[in-house]
Design a protein that fits this description.
Elements (H helix, E strand, L loop, with lengths): L2 H11 L4 E6 L11 H18 L2 E6 L2 E2 L3 H7 L8 H15 L1 E7 L2 E4 L2 E5 L7 E7 L2 E3 L3 E2 L4 E4 L5 H27 L2 E6 L1 H4 L4 H18 L11 E5 L1 H4 L4 H21 L4 H5 L5 H28 L2 H5 L3 E5 L12 H9 L5 H7 L8 H4 L26
Helix pairs in contact: 2-4, 2-9, 5-9
């Protein structure tokens, strides 16, 4: 118990007989819940883990090609991180800070912990005072020298924090109310003889900090009191645990996860871990949450890695978000057959999609089509062309 609490109690004592209302929760340290951070970190961790499963595909003249860029972004971005660790850190800082800076140092990609950006209307922005871990970069970088990812002009996490603060306060009030409803309550009477003793403060602190604490925490206990102290237990209240507070906590927690899911464009049911209609929920999550983030990263990587002439020639990078989904071969066997039969994909294409290794044979790379697919003219159906003329 803090000295502040003792001083507060002493203000009630004064001279003469005194009655102090007590609960077991009053002498335990109070710990507030921060459900906002829990919900935010749950959302960020979900998105970061999803993006870390993506494959950064590289193309040369429109054909998929694996070279240095592919290895850097998919295997080893730096000497101290593999690609999964790098991408999780990248997405976490991007979502938590609304922006993230990555420095290409030699063949490595270094994520900055802090930096200062000076913005210009027409000229390139510059970055300085950059730190990463214990390392400081005493150099000013131009925008063209770095990868700078930013979600938008509005810091959604800051707005969410202001919105959720009220919910967080309500949640802690419900938790306190629940604790109080189940706490052991009693009345401690202190007469003038005890309060006037020269060692009163020392004895009171020992009684409250040690003896009552042990008494309340024990399953079975006896508390001997000195002359001048009388404790009466309110036994009728000790066994009452209200279920309404538990319902309040559940409702408020669900509401906070709803708002957090909306802020990060995650279906709230997915964030809470519900599995009902998981296919439609996952599709919604990938379409409105993951794909826009990956598209923004794509654009920044293309303009910094390749540039306009190379991009127009078919050289670029693309994040494949289809690898996020788990594929069950037996459940999609019919779909695979249709994709091959229509000529849309080769056998090797689909083997890679399924997480298997390409056969890399001439026949497995071919695109085939069944005889069921024919031109409409070959069926003897007349085709007509309608010409529209302006009046």
């Amino acid at each position: 118990m803090s000295i502040g609490f003792i001083d507060w109690m002493k203000s009630f004592l004064g001279v003469g007989g005194t009655t102090v209302n007590m609960t077991s929760t009053a002498i335990s340290s109070e710990q507030k819940l921060n459900i906002e951070l829990f919900a935010v970190f749950s959302a960020i961790n979900l998105i970061a883990s999803s993006v870390s499963k993506c494959e950064f595909k590289t193309y040369a003249k429109g054909i998929e090609f694996k070279g240095d860029n592919y290895y850097k972004w998919n295997i080893e971005p730096s000497k101290n991180k593999n690609s999964s660790q790098f991408q999780q850190e990248l997405i976490t800082k991007l979502l938590f800070n609304n922006e993230v800076l990555v420095l290409p140092i030699g063949d490595q990609l270094i994520i900055a912990d802090s930096f200062y950006q000076e913005e210009f209307a027409i000229a390139e922005n510059t970055f300085s005072s950059i730190t990463s871990g214990t390392l400081s970069f005493n150099k000013t970088y131009n925008m063209s020298d770095v990868y700078y990812y930013k979600l938008g002009n509005t810091d959604i996490r800051a707005l969410l924090s202001n919105l959720v603060k009220g919910y967080n306060d309500l949640l802690n009030m419900s938790v306190d109310k629940y604790d109080q409803s189940g706490g052991r309550k009693g009345i401690l009477d202190i007469d003038s003889t005890a309060s006037g003793n020269v060692n009163f403060q020392e004895k009171l602190e020992n009684l409250m900090n040690k003896r009552f604490k042990t008494y309340f925490e024990s399953r079975n206990a006896v508390l001997p009191l000195e002359k001048g102290y009388k404790y009466t237990e309110n036994g009728g209240e000790a066994s009452k645990k209200s279920t309404s507070e538990i319902a309040d906590i559940a409702v408020i927690t669900k509401e906070i996860f709803e708002r957090t899911g909306q802020a990060f464009k995650i279906p709230p049911s997915l964030l809470r871990g519900d599995i009902a209609d998981i296919v439609a929920t996952t599709t919604n999550y990938l379409t409105f949450c993951v794909d826009p983030i990956c598209c923004m990263i794509d654009e920044e990587n293309i303009r910094k890695n390749y540039g306009k002439p190379a991009f127009l020639a078919g050289n670029y990078m693309r994040i494949d978000t289809t690898t996020i989904r788990h594929i069950d071969l037996f459940s999609i066997s019919e779909a695979f057959d249709k994709l091959i039969a229509s000529g849309g994909y080769s056998i090797d294409d689909l083997r890679v999609k399924a997480g298997d290794v390409a056969l890399n044979t001439p026949w497995s790379r071919q695109h085939v089509i069944t005889k069921n697919y024919q031109k409409i003219e070959s069926l003897g159906v007349e085709t007509t062309t309608t010409t529209v003329t302006k009046q």
